[in-house]
Structures are given as C-alpha cells and as structure tokens.
Design a protein that fits this description.
homodimer, about 450 residues, mainly alpha, CBS-domain, Tetracycline Repressor, domain 2, 3-stranded mixed β-sheet, CBS domain (chains A, B), metal-binding (chains A, B)
C-alpha cells in the first residue's frame, strides 16, 4: 500500500483503494507513516474518508483531520457519524474540539455537543443524531420527499421517528411500511405508537439487553422530557455486548477488567489491574497458614494427611469455579434472578452431591494407592464429598447475594471462590480427621 | 391474563393483547394451560400469532399450531420466519413436519426444506429465505413495485439482493439508496458488487465475527455455486454472540458448556457436563500427593513448610487464572494471534515479575509473622516470586499453542491452570527449600 501511495498517480490510487472495504483500509492505514496517511486522505472522496476514519482511534482521527485543508476537513467531519465525532471531540483538547465544531453547520454542531455531555458507558454516549424524523401529520409522500432531501446524511435508515412539537418521541415507522403503504396516507395512521426507547442515562449494558430481548436493530434515546436525542445503532450495541462479555470473563478470572484491548494495555496497566485482587486473595489465603499451624500437632502425628491437602482443596476450588462461572453468566444474561435462590441452591447442592460421591470413591482409591492407612483413606473420602458439597453451596449462594445487593456477581471470581474454599476446606479436612482418627 | 381469556369476549381479549409486545406475550403464554393457549391463538390475527410463536420453544410452537384449524395453521405458518419454521420442523417428527410443509405454498416449502438440511451451528441453519431479490436489469421503479408486491412477507427489509439467472448472488443495494435515487435508474448502476457473503457451511461464530467486524445488519448465505440461499438477520447473530460468550465462560470455569439455558438443564445434565473435567483434573491433581510423599522427609523435618503450601500454590493458580482468562478472550475476539506468541510471553512474564516481586515481599512478612524460622521465610519469598513467574509463563503459552493446533484455547480453563500450577509449584517449592535449607 505504501508503495502504491508513493509511486502512483491520484487516479490509480483511488481505483486501488476503492477495491477494499473501509474496515480493512483502516487496518492498513494505521500502519502507514503520517506523511502517507495525509497524502491519501487529501485525494480520497470525503464519504470514503469519513467511513475509513470511523474505524481509527480518536486521536489518529484528529491528527489526520487537522492536517487536511479546512473545507475538506469540514466535509469529511460532516459525513462522519455524529457519535464518532462526539467521541473524537472528547478525546482531544477542548480548544481543538471547538475549532472543529465551528466547521460544522451550527444546528448540527449543537447536537454533537449535546452528545458530548453524556458520560461514557451510558446509552446517550452511544447515540447518533443522524436519524430521520418526521411529523405525524405528514403524508407518506411528504415523508418520502423529506427522506430524499436529508437521507444522504442519515445513518439510521430503516426507521423514521415521529416527533411532536417539542421534539418528544411519539412513535416509529419502518421505511418498509412507508413504501408498502398508499402515498397519500397520513403517517399517524401507520405509526407504531408504543416505541421502545431508553433514557440517555441508562447503562449501555441494559440498553444492549433491551435490544437483544426485543430483536431490535435501532434503539431511540430520549431525555428526561421524553424528547428524542438520538438513536443507537445495532453495531454499536454489538460492540457493547462483546465488551461486557470480555469484562465479565476478566473479572471471573480474578482481575479488574482492562479498559483497552490487550496489546494497547501497558505492562504497568496489566500489573495494576491484577495486583489488587492478587493481594486481597493473598491476604485471605494467608489464613490457611493459621489453620495449618493450629493443626500442627495433628499434622506431625499423621504426616500423610499433608499429602492430600492440595488434592482436596483443589477439587473443592474446581467445583466452586464451575458453579460460579455458570451462575454469574446466567445472572448476566437474565436466566437466573434472586428469587430463584432456593431453586438454584437445590440444583447445585444436588449436583454437588452426585459429583462429590463420584470423586469421593476415586479419592479413597487414590489414598489407598499411595499406601496410607485405611483410616486416612476414609478421612480423605468423607472430606472430598463434604468439600464438594460445601463448595457448590457457597458458589451458588454468593453471586446471588451480590446480585441482590446490586453489586457485581462477577466479584465472586474463580480465584475468589478457590481461596474461600481453600481456607474453609482445610478446617473441614482436619475436623473430619480429628473425629475419624480420634486425635 | 388467564382470567381475561376465560372471562372476556373476543374483542376485549384482542384489545388487551395488542397493548403488549410479542416477546412479553410469549413469556406469559408459556405459563398458560394448553386450553387457554389454543383459545387465544384461535382468535388472534395470524400476523400477531406468528410473531408471538417465534419466541416460543419449537415443541410448543408445534403443539399450538397442530390444534388450530388447518387454514389458520397455514396462514400463521406462512407468516413465521422461515428459519424459525425450519427449526420447528427439525424438532418434531418427520411425519408431522411433512404434514405441515404441505400446508405451505410449494416453492416456499421447498426453500424451508433446504434450510432444514444445514447442520446446527452453521451459517446455513440461521438463514431465513424471507428476503427480497431483484434482477440487475430492473429499473428502481420496477424494483419498488416488486417490493410492494412481496414485501409484506419479507423479514429482511433494509436491503435488496441482486441475483443472476441461476440464482447466484451478484450484489446488494440498500432500500435507502433505492429511495434516494431517480426511479428510472437501472439497479446495476447503484448496486454494490462486492458483497460480503458466507458459505452455508461456515460456523455461526465465524459469521458473527464477520458481521461485527464490518458493522453489517444482515449477512447473505450462499451455497457452493455462489447461489443465494438465504440471509441471516442481525438479531440471530446477536444470539450467537451471547451463546458463544456463555460457552467460553463455562469452559473457562472448567466444565463443558451447557446446551440449554440453566433452568432447562437437568441436574443430571449439569452432573455430566461437570464431572468429566472434575475427574480429569482430580487425576492430574492426585500427582501432588506423589510429590508430597516424595518430600515426606523434608516435610517432617521442617513441618512449618506445610503451612505455606496452600498459600503458595493458591497464589500461583490465581496468577495463572488471571492470565488465561485475559488471553483466551483476547484470542476469541481476535485481539491476539499465534504470531504474537513472543510479544505475549514477554508481556506476561514482565507483569509476572512485577506482581511476583510484590507478592514475594508480603509473603516473607507473612512467614515471619507466623513465627517461623527466617530461612523458611526466605524460601517462601523466593518460591512466591518463582511460582508467579512460572504460572504467568505457562498460562501465556498454553492457550496460544492450543489455538495454533486449532483446538479450543478455553480448554486451558481456570481449574486446568490451577491444577497444573499446583503440582509443578510444589516441586518448585521443595526444590528451593532443599537448596536454601541445605536438607
């Protein structure tokens, strides 16, 4: 690509570029040197430039726009989605942003500024103002004329939103329905009045849930006075769904979620996100030392008991991890609610009883194989069953309690439940040992 | 709802029903008794019935359809999405399916039968045949007439697909573009020829990745001869994205993924999905017993070493879990590739060095606090550092190797890496102990 930009004339560069998709072009352009980037955007069609820029990082978007001629910058900026423009404005200096905003038509610039006021991770921050709005008194013919006039700029194209005098959202009608219906019909006759909309302050995850549940492809966003502020497109919410799953997976893995993609996160960021939970868990796990010292005498009398410590608490941790990850995900997608608490406990404890019994038999076999006393084998077997049931119970109940307390159930991560079961598991082990071995 | 169906006249039931959304209605109807379900569907408009049925389970769909009058069944069936109909047909007996297929217009029935041939989890199995196709020689005016004629049945409404003589996919044009362009224009002049399509045999996850990457809202599916078979809608692929994240989370939690939602999975199913990995890991973990027996002498000489076993291997397991979950997810969303192996190892080992050093200091403090010998404290400190680095390294390398071998990186689950680090961590611990304590 570098070669072609350096060597070719404008026309062949454009022909070459147009054979690729904006996403793929963006991937290549990221690798180019600044000089070539600018050269390319100077000759590209503003629509194409805008589409490519949308896939680049905000800071790079600005660096490129800033080096184009002012009229070209204005054109490209106006063709970009308003939500992308707002994100870029927020990433650059206030003074730089103002200069760019002045290049936009005033009414449009104001809408972008409104989008900039919504905090990250809210529905408002994802909304685009490039939708088509119509009045309920219009005929379909007039609506179509309106669409033809402003449709080139619109990003939301399958739906037309009906707004009232104060900009309040009254309904929605699909482009398909407009085409299928007699042109003289008034919009109000075919509009769906019950439109699903979300307040700008709603969390992005909740918005994505709504979209998933009702199979929507666009989600209108309103302010406190029910006025239409913008519309979220499905591709932005798909990104949210991916992000939220990534966060849940990282949390379940016992670290704070990264705010950037893996390779964009520095080693120090990785360190910071991980060390916090490692330390908390280390301190919690240090409790196992206290437990073991407490049972030092038992341990020196029957040193064979030590052989099974990692095996027993490890199995307990594994069981807990299985249960926790299943439940945290079920809570996240709404399959399980707090009111299901008792159903969940019954299900998990029953399953734990079955897996525990299976493991218990194998554990006794393993103990005898290691050549320890029959009694120690019995202790190991009983402990295995008890720990598995205990781990199932704790792992079932904790995420639900956090959910009820409106905390994040994924705090009960796999390392968290493992650590919890380690300490308590040891107490169970030595208590059973003392009883069975009469120590 | 039950009360209203039992007591009210047809008209008030319909008015009541129409104030809700199909998804919510489906949730309620699932709870009703069969008698009321049938009564309701007998009086509902076929379009509404079809929309509600799409949210119900295939077997329930059939049970309801089967009890309606034949002409009504035919109407409702024809209004349902073809991919949903195909799924239902596959869930019921062959003979029942044939009876239903005969109610559909022949050409349409054949298309549904084609959809039924694609294996689960492939792009083909998600496709609907309710799209709009046009010929490249048509004018936009003719295309619009065609849309008006068949559009009522179409599920894909934002795009029109251009097919050739043999049904091969030639391009796509958006409804918006059709409306914005002069009606006398020929489609071929505005068509996008480079359309992203997927083969019917492609895995659903890969199809969802394409949709995410290119911000599409519909994905055409073609057969081996590039003929258009159907189109996947974005809502079906959103479900796939959710499903795949759920599977990854359950796998990372160390169990085989459930094939049904949590409460639809029986205790026995949970048992089966979990016991396999529990047993494999138990057998692997049993190795720790062998290691400990091997160091029995060392252990009886310095019993204090036993106090730190859970703490040290637990911290190693936690570190490994953090790394594994971050990397498995990064591989799943394509942020990391196999060729990044060395970059990943460098990043993870450096991070491990930093977390390890921090943990090591705290570990020495903790050991001295427990009142053990200074030398033992030193052993604990060195071991903590070594185990954390070792866990980071193994957890970085294993998912990448599995990925390279085209196996699922999520096999390296949190319990897997914990178990691996437990056994190897003990060897590290006692080796360091023997050297430092000169045993």
């Amino acid at each position: 690509m570098k070669k072609i930009i350096d060597k070719s004339d404008t026309k062949s560069i454009i022909t070459y570029i147009e054979s690729f998709r904006p996403f793929d072009l963006a991937q290549c352009i990221e690798q180019l040197e600044s000089k070539e980037q600018i050269k390319l955007f100077k000759i590209l069609d503003p629509v194409m430039s805008a589409e490519i820029l949308e896939y680049l990082e905000p800071v790079l978007q600005y660096r490129i726009l800033n080096q184009l001629e002012e009229t070209l910058t204005a054109q490209v900026l106006h063709k970009m989605s308003s939500d992308v423009v707002a994100d870029m404005m927020l990433a650059i200096h206030r003074y730089q942003a103002e200069k760019l905003l002045n290049l936009l038509p005033e009414a449009y610039g104001q809408k972008v500024q409104t989008l900039m006021t919504f905090p990250e991770h809210t529905a408002g921050s994802l909304a685009t103002v490039d939708y088509i709005a119509a009045r309920s008194t219009w005929t379909l013919e007039k609506t179509l004329r309106h669409i033809r006039k402003i449709g080139h700029k619109a990003e939301i194209t399958s739906y037309v939103y009906i707004t009232g005098n104060k900009g309040e959202l009254l309904g929605v009608v699909s482009l398909k329905k407009i085409i299928l219906t007699e042109p003289q019909t008034q919009i109000s006759e075919i509009v769906m009045g019950e439109v699903i909309s979300v307040p700008a302050s709603m969390g992005q995850e909740e918005a994505a849930d709504l979209l998933t549940r009702y199979d929507l492809v666009a989600l209108p966003v309103v302010d406190q006075q029910e006025r239409l502020i913008g519309v979220i497109t499905v591709d932005d919410l798909i990104d949210v769904i991916h992000e939220e799953a990534t966060e849940d997976i990282q949390k379940l893995g016992g670290s704070q979620p990264l705010t950037e993609p893996y390779f964009k996160s520095s080693v120090f960021q990785l360190y910071r996100k991980r060390i916090i939970w490692l330390l908390i868990l280390f301190v919690a796990e240090a409790y196992t030392g206290t437990v073991l010292r407490h049972y030092e005498e038992t341990l020196s009398e029957v040193i064979a008991l030590a052989f099974f410590i990692p095996l027993l608490i490890g199995t307990g941790g594994n069981t807990g991890t299985q249960t926790v990850s299943t439940l945290v995900r079920a809570l996240a997608v709404g399959e399980v609610q707090f009111r299901d608490m008792f159903k969940v406990i019954r299900k998990e404890v029953t399953t734990g009883l079955m897996t525990g019994a299976t493991i218990s038999l194998i554990a006794i076999g393993r103990a005898l194989l290691l050549g320890v006393d029959w009694n120690v084998g019995l202790v190991v077997g009983i402990t295995a069953l008890t720990i598995v049931i205990w781990a199932s119970f704790v792992a079932a109940i904790l995420p639900l309690i956090l959910y009820k307390l409106k905390a994040d159930p994924a705090v009960v991560s796999s390392p968290f439940i493992t650590t919890l079961v380690d300490g308590t598991g040891l107490v169970i082990y030595f208590t059973i040992a003392k009883i069975v071995l009469r120590l």
